[in-house]
Each structure stands twice: as structure tokens, then as C-alpha cells.
User: Which sequence fits this backbone?
């Protein structure tokens, strides 16, 4: 059985991703084309046990695209601007 459906690979930088709630389901929603896909990704992130690690990674790595750690790319841009 292959339940590993990730939009991004698990790497040494992101070992916690193996525990991510995004392991199952439609990985495309994490790089959404619509507000409904974005909302679905955020709903999944809200249940994720590694949300804090994912958010910290996304900020540190300045991930430009997609939903990471329960935030949209727009929200992260805003946070980075405020902390600059
Ligand atoms: S917080 Fe969201 S994007 Fe990050 S690992 Fe969890 S489900 Fe995936």
C-alpha cells in the first residue's frame, strides 16, 4: 500500500514530514489553484501533529509557494515583512 502522497519530498531538512497529515489525501491542495483548495489544505494542517515544525521550517527556508505549517504563502510573506 502506498499512502505516501506528498507534493514535496521528505528530505534531511524536513524529516518530520513523515508524520505530516498531508501524507494522505490530495497533495495538490497544498499548492492550491483556488480558495477552496487552499481552505482544504489549511483544514488538514489544523490536524497535523508536526504543524509547528513545518511552520518553523517554512519561515526559515522562506518557502515561497504553497501551504506550509497552517499558513498560506501570503500569510508567510506578511509575517516575514513584519519581522524584517
Ligand atoms: S502542517 Fe500542513 S503542510 Fe506541514 S506537514 Fe502538516 S499537513 Fe503537511
Assistant:
Amino acid at each position: 500500500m502506498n499512502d505516501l502522497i506528498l507534493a514535496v519530498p521528505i528530505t534531511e531538512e524536513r524529516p518530520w514530514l513523515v508524520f505530516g497529515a498531508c501524507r494522505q489525501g490530495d497533495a495538490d491542495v497544498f499548492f492550491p489553484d483556488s480558495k477552496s483548495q487552499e481552505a482544504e489544505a489549511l483544514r488538514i494542517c489544523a490536524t497535523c501533529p508536526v504543524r509547528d515544525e513545518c511552520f518553523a521550517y517554512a519561515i526559515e527556508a522562506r518557502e515561497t509557494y504553497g501551504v506550509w505549517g497552517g499558513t498560506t504563502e501570503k500569510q508567510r510573506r506578511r509575517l516575514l515583512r513584519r519581522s524584517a
